[in-house]
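Q: Hi! First time doing this. I have a protein sequence and I read that you can turn it into a structure. Is that right? Here it is:
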Amino acid sequence: MAGIASRSQLRMSFLRYALFTVPAVLLLGTLSGRLSGAGAGNRWFDALAKPALMPPGWVFGAAWTILYILLGLSLAVVINARGAKGRGLAVAFFLAQLALNLSWSPIFFAAHRVGIALVVIAAILVLTLVTAWLFSRIRATADA
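A: Yes, that's right. Below is the predicted 3D structure, encoded as structure tokens:
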């Protein structure tokens, strides 16, 4: 039986991908932060001079949780676009930016390498922009 999938079949396919990608990305992000001692309670970080406008620590946890969920959903949208031209490259760039993203907390909070962490942030920014552009070429909703 060869035919085009119905809207409900496509929706279920996306949901199956999302049920894997969202928890996976969220878990990896959480592990990266926890294992590196990120945030409040890290003696080295607590001793740093911080700007007066720095938000409370819980804001970072909430923001990163939301960001990791959205990253997982975007990845599911692109993975679900089977047969889309450039999908493999887009996923490769996503994985590269995610790997750098996950490496930032250990570099900054555990290794205390502020200069290297700044370079990693710059690289994350570049890879994220390229990834968003590649994702938008596959599905406009993936980069929103």
